[in-house]
Every structure is written in structure tokens, then in C-alpha cells.
């Protein structure tokens, strides 16, 4: 079976290496996902013939690869990738030219083994490897001229990976008959194909693959394409499966599975080992594979797969490009995400049977975006990932019941990136966090454009993008360029604005803006300004005045609460300030950025905030403002107050409507507020009043929801009930504490309490916080006596709650005495490090730790002087979390008294003092305001403060 010359000529044109100019959104510098050194671009592959023979019982595989080559520059070197775990047989490696001396120019190379043109063997001078780069370099005796074509043949062996689902791996499982079985699988994303065969392992090299796999006759072999033929193998009981040639694809798209698996198909006739289900109009052979015992479980997933596949075909306005799609449920699959080879996706068994369809849809998106159209280089995978997640959520919301909450998408994502990008130092040293938050922000930019340009424009722009890049590659900003072209056609963007400019202003900054709206109630206008959103104090980020974004100003006012139209009244074109006329009457509020269209908070003047708060207190008002916008207003208010940009009195006014609110999405921000504000003020006398307010706010909701789920309730309601329970327990709600203690006593009465913990985790912290001495010491003994054969994460959770939950100082003192003074051998250095960390969660914890350190300084210093990591952690936990003048005085006194004695922790104590000074400023400014508001509220409601 041969590809036509037209296809191959087009392919060679696409991949002829060319000079690449820097794009307008160049992600290479800002998102270095892979530190791979690029291959030289003087030779490119044109095709692969790949023969693999995996031997699962031996844990090895052997193979042969024939790679078609085209020379794009004269060179005597061939450089490709081969992982150090591969054994390549240098003596068997051959290089041949099809066109003799290389003077003849040809257009394409039909068959790597063609006998029509004599193949001239080239003399290999030397073969070398470079392990750090996985380079395999063949140096020829003579250079080969530009436009020459030929092929390289390599034989190799390798080791099947155990306990990690990467490269070519094997999985062992026990079948229904109690027999051991093996499954072979592959996971080559992002650059692991080199672990299985020598190749040009870069995403831009997309070429056809001709794959053959050897396997035992009792097993099936699956690959990207349907089987083409089967042959006898030289080994008795073995056979060859040869697959149809693939379209051009990247090496990471190659997939192979071998095992005793069975297939259920969706839309083709019944044959041996196939079970026919409901016919489908999809023009593709769609099937799921699994072990015989798990097949009935995954059968239900076929309908979800088919539904998502249809929806994606409609979204892209392109049919699925391959003749078949197989989804395989693998037992004991170890990768954090499925292996999304083209036409072959490997899942964990429970991923195919899980509730909802987000995971399945997400992997199907990559069949188009990633496999059919691939990033040119790993850095462009950032855009690929963001767009894939956006399309996944878009499709999932279209095809499923809206009770499937996606973890409150997009609010959970929005809130987390608000917190991350508003730090003084976003991400710290965590590259993974930077990649994930950057990708999440880019996903939200797609969402913002979908609102502001219109769904029609964005979807047709993405269809334009995909249709132009079939079997090809793309750069990060190609998506924005396609959306811009479509927007120009649809006249949803004028010539002064491009999606590329808009996106670049968001993607290339590890910051987000906050928009301030100052109304002029006399003439009905509003001045709107933008600045960097900084939540942590001090707000001293360098060059922040230079940060400007393209921001859509979408606005609704009280007389026209239309939340279906999102055309911006104005774009802030990287302008510091704009003025908008006729926003509303003087007695009407406005809402900017409704539905969180763009990822930025909005601040108003006090009058507008108070009008919003009063409106939300009415039943009619809450009905007219959608729940996402209600959540946004609440979240913006308290976060702006936390940052020092809004009075806490105004922010707390925005919480009053919650006494009548029952939508879980509107409640979501308040739980974060309770946690953040509660931690900040728990060392002050205001904390007891705040906890009383929390109990007043949550108790009616808790009583209405009931203690247990009811049939048919939404996932959101269930989550809301659990959150209310957790925060009521933390606030000392007595019925909650009683319920927790009753559950805990069942464990205390057990004959062998160390054999297992029958108590749900949510009960343990309330017991250790508010419970008796006997209950807490029972927990301490369980940690000390914890059996080695039980799961150690259970012990870790117990230790965390023992240290981090108690409200009584004596409990903290006891665990410090046991672990530090008594040097109990049941606690490791890691345990002590964990205890120090947990004690920073409450003022009782870090204050008790500070006093303990101050009292036993000499003993503790001697204990930890040879363990600088623990010593530094102790000083940090004991000194860095104070937030009041009293705490600042305590730490300052210790610093003076012990100056010169901190050793490696000198920089820690100095940093602590600087942080406490900032926190003290915050407390001095905000605690009186919070207390005044709470006093008035509690007085108006005739409530007496009770600490429990």
C-alpha cells in the first residue's frame, strides 16, 4: 500500500526546513516546557517503516526501523534521537541513497524498500551517541548533497518499562481464572518515542508510519490504523499484524497495545470477538477494548465517546480523519493522564467508567488538536493545552446535564489564578505551577473572546484554523490570527484591534489587572482605570506602572439587566484610563465585567457597591443577577478589601445577601473568605466575633440542607452541604462537634483501634480542635502505635490534624514535648518538619510554638544545630506568621536577645520581621473596621458572642 505522490509532495513542502521569524506571541522564552536540544535541520524524515517485537514475559522488545530521508542541506552527518535505554546495533545500521551520487533531484520517495531505483549503500565512518541529548549520530565517509533522498535502516532492542506508563511499557494483571497476564502499551508524549525506536523525535516532523507488530496468537495487537494483514511468525504460536499506513503524524502520536483484550464496537458488523451495539451515523469504526472481566463495565462508555465525537465533528466542521478510533481500558495504568495516540487512546479503567464526560471529551479533542494539527515545538504546546481544555469544557457543557459542575468551572480556575498572579512573587520556583496557571489563563482568554467577539466568530475562527492545518503544524499565535481573520470577516473587530494583540497582552505577563470604576453621579459618566492586581502586601512589584492590558469593558446597569449581550462598550487598548459617558442614572448601579467575562476583578466607588448590596438583599434582585455574577461581586469585594483597595465594611455588606442565597456557586467565594480572613484575624479579639458571624450565616443554610444527601440532588448541593459542615465545625458549631465526637467514640471503643480508622476524615479535625483531652491523646497514641503495614498517608493525616487543629495550647505543647524534648523515636525528622508547618495554620499553633522555642531555646538549638533544614523551618514557623503589633514586639525581642545565635536561620528571622511589619499595618488598618461592622451586626441581631 503506497501513498500518492501528491500527498508526499505536499508533505515535503510543509516540512522543508525554513527560516522561522519570531512570532508576535513568542512562547519559547516564557514557557520553556521542554529543554530538549533541537536536531540539526539538514535532514528530514519522509516516512517510517517500524517493526516491533515486544516480549512481555522477558520484559524486553526488539525492533527494526527504516526511515525515509530527504537531504535539505549538504552534510555527511545524520543525527536522530535514540534513548540511552535502547541498544542500537551499529554494525547492522545501513544508509542508502536512492538516486546514486545525489546529483539527481527528485520530488518524492514512494517506498523505502523500492527496487525500481538502485539503492546505493553509503560508507559509515563512525557512529556516536550523546546520552544527555539522546542523540544518535551517524557520520558518513562522504557528504550527501541537497535534495538527495534515501533511507536509514536500524536494528535495536530495549527494555519494557515497569511501574511507569511511559515509552513502551508492560502491565501485569490477574484474570478471572487467577492467571497472570501481560499487556504492552505505549505512551510517547511529549518526547518519549525515542525510548522505543530511533527517530526524529520532534513534533514538527510529521510523516506516514507503516507499523508491524509481533505478538502471541492468544493476544490482539492494536495500533493507530486498522489491521491490513496478518502473517505467520517464525516462532511457534506467534504472528505478525501489519497495519495500514498512517497519514503524516508526529512520533508522539504513534501508539501500540498488545494483550488478551476484547473489543466492543459501535458501528460496524459483528465479527469474531466483537459485540454489536446501536448503529451510529459516525463514519468511523469506534470501539472500546478491555480485559474480559472489565468489558461489561466499559460498554456504557461507548455512547459517551460517540456523543463527544459527534459534537467535536460539528465543532470543528470536519469529520474525524482516521478510519477507526479505539479507546483501551488498561488495568494498573500508571500515567497521570491517558495516552492519546492518534486513533488509539489508553485510559485507566476507572477513567472510562467515571461519571460525566469531561475526561473522555478532553482526550478526543487531542485527536484533532495535537495529533491532526500539532504544535511546531514543545513551547507551543502551552496554547495547544489551553485551547484543548477550553474546547473540552465548551463541548461538555453542550452535551451534558449542567449538574455536571466541572469543579465550578470557570470560578475555581479563575479564583486560583487570581490568588497566584496577585502574589508578590508568582509561582515561586514551581515551574509546574507556572505552566498550569499560564495555561489556565490562556484558556480564560479564549473564553473572554468567545463572549466579546461572539460564539459564532470564535468557533468559525477555530474551524478556519483547523481546516488550514490538517496533517500540519502550528505556532502558538496561529490560533489568534485565525480568530482575527474571522472577526474581520464578521465585522466583530475593527481594523485597530486584533485577537493577537489582545491575547499577547494577557499571555506574556505573569500578572492580571484590576479595573477601578469611579462614577460621576452628576453627569452619568464613569472614569475607568486599570492597574496591576496585587493582593499581598506590600504592593512594591517593580515596573508595575508599565503593565497594561487590552481589556473589554462590558457593562450592564440596573435599568437594563441584560446578561445575554456581551459586546464591549469600549476596549481599553492598553490604555491606563478611559472615560465612558451615560453609564446609568445616579440612583442606579452598574456592573462591569458581568459573568466574569474577562479574568480581572472590578472595584467601584462606595455608593455603587452599596447600591449593589441593597439590591441583592431583595428576592427580585437576586433573580435578576445571574449566580456567576453574584459570586463575582462577592469575590471581588472581599479580595479587594483584603488587598487594601476597599473598606472591609463595604465588603462585609456584600455578604449579607447570603442569608437568602441557596445557589452553591454564589456560596463558593465565602468559604475562601472565611478561611483567609479567619486565619488573618485569629490572633485578635475580633476572631470570636467573626466566628459568631460565620455561625449565624451558615446555620440556617445547614439546617435547610439537612445532614444527609437526598435522592436526586445536584452535585453542587452535595458539595455545598459538605462545605457548610466543615466551616461550621471550624467555627465551633456545637451540633457539628457533637456529631464528630459520636463518630470518633466508635473508634475509641474498638477492641483493636490500631487495625484501622473507621472515622471519616471530616470528623477528626473538629474533635482534635474542640474535643476533650482524652480524645486528643487517643489520637496521639494512634500515631505513635501506627502499624507499618497500613497506608502511611492515614498516619500523615492524623499527624497533620493533631498538630494543626487544636484550639488549646496544651495540646500543641504536648506534641512538641513528645517529639522534641522527649525525642520519641516514633517521629521522624519529616514528621517534625510537618508539625512545624501545620502549626502556622492558627495563632494558637504558632504562638505556642514561639513560646516553646523561647522557653527551651538552648535545648532545641542543640538538638537541631546539625540539621539546618529543620532549624530554619522551626524559626520560620515560630516567627513568620504573626500579624499584630503584639506579635511584632515578641519576635523583635527574641531577635535582639538571640542576635548572633540564629546561625543558618539569620535570614529567616530577618525576613519574618519584615513580613510581620506589613501584616501589622494590615491589621491596624482593617481590624478596627471589621470589628466595628461585626459589633453593629451582632447588636442589630441581638446576638451575644460565644467562643464555642
TrEMBL record:
Cofactors named for this entry: Zn(2+)
Membrane-related topology note: Lipid-anchor; GPI-anchor
The keyword Zinc is assigned to this record: yes
Chief site of localization: membrane
Annotated Peptidase M1 membrane alanine aminopeptidase domain residues: 302-487
Gene Ontology annotations of biological process type: proteolysis
Key words of the record: Aminopeptidase, Glycoprotein, GPI-anchor, Hydrolase, Lipoprotein, Membrane, Metal-binding, Metalloprotease, Protease, Signal, Zinc
Annotated signal peptide: 1-19
Ranges for domain Aminopeptidase N-like N-terminal: 45-252
GO MF annotation: an example: aminopeptidase activity
Active site per UniProt: 363 (proton acceptor)
Binding site for Zn(2+): 362
Cofactor: how and how many bound: Binds 1 zinc ion per subunit.
GO cellular component: cytoplasm; extracellular space; plasma membrane; side of membrane
PANTHER family: FI02158P, PROTEASE M1 ZINC METALLOPROTEASE
Family membership: Belongs to the peptidase M1 family.
Name this protein carries in UniProt: Aminopeptidase
Naturally occurring in which organism (per UniProt): Agrilus planipennis (Emerald ash borer)
